[in-house]
Amino acid sequence: xxxxxxxxxxxxxxxxxxxxxxxxxxxxxxxxxxxxxxxxxxxxxxxxxxxxxxxxxxxxxxxxxxxxxxxxxxxxxxxxxxxxxxxxxxxxxxxxxxxxxxxxxxxxxxxxxxxxxxxxxxxxxxxxxxxxxxxxxxxxxxxxxxxxxxxxxxxxxxxxxxxxxxxxxxxxxxxxxxxxxxxxxxxxxxxxxxxxxxxxxxxxxxxxxxxxxxxxxxxxxxxxxxxxxxxxxxxxxxxxxxxxxxxxxxxxxxxxxxxxxxxxxxxxxxxxxxxxxxxxxxxxxxxxxxxxxxxxxxxxxxx
Length: 303
Hints:
The protein is globular and about 55 Å long. The longest helix is centred in the N-terminal third of the chain and has 27 residues. Strands 1-2 form a two-stranded antiparallel ribbon. By secondary structure, the protein is mostly helical. The protein is 57% helix and 4% strand. 34% of the residues are buried.
């Protein structure tokens, strides 16, 4: 319909008869309705808002909401950062050479103590609850606590004790080679004052649990999170060694790892509140395996 065309229509008068009406032609501004005034929207719109321009929302929410949201966002970022760092530090790809150590599992397979998934699971259960896994966890907890408390003397004592506590030459090599490598890699990519304090307090070889604990504490990762992740990674490495040595299928290995989840959590909780007087191993066969492995004729692993 053109702008100069008259508009016609019909309506009903009071008597019910039809009546025609017409509107004047719309030319220029004639016949248009006056623009309706818009109310202020509360989103930063002024009273001089130009017709046809969309309102511009204020991106800032109310202050109370903004403050709460900021705290939640910061907390979420912290949790994500913690998860990413633990995944990186305890990944098989982290350059500590964990894949080359079996903690005596290779000798246990050779001797027939480990022959299938069930015996592997039982062996690792003992190592976690009454052997090297539990001892590592206690040392980890005390090293972490020493950093949080800024107690350099306690940190030195724990580092010295951990380096001396290995039950065999190869287990000493396993824990200190990985520990030293972990410290150097972490200082290069995730430096923190705690690692510098460890270097200043202790000049000897660093045991693996102490290295990871100091790094985690230096980055304010909680003991519960760090210790549970450490024990899970340790268990996963043992399972991987068993899968290669028995040998087992990958799915069987995953079944063993899944079956030990509750054990890992329980050991982390128990070690987190244990005193140094509680440190000790009653997994004699596992400790003996690490010593016998030194003279084993055919070996794939360094321990």
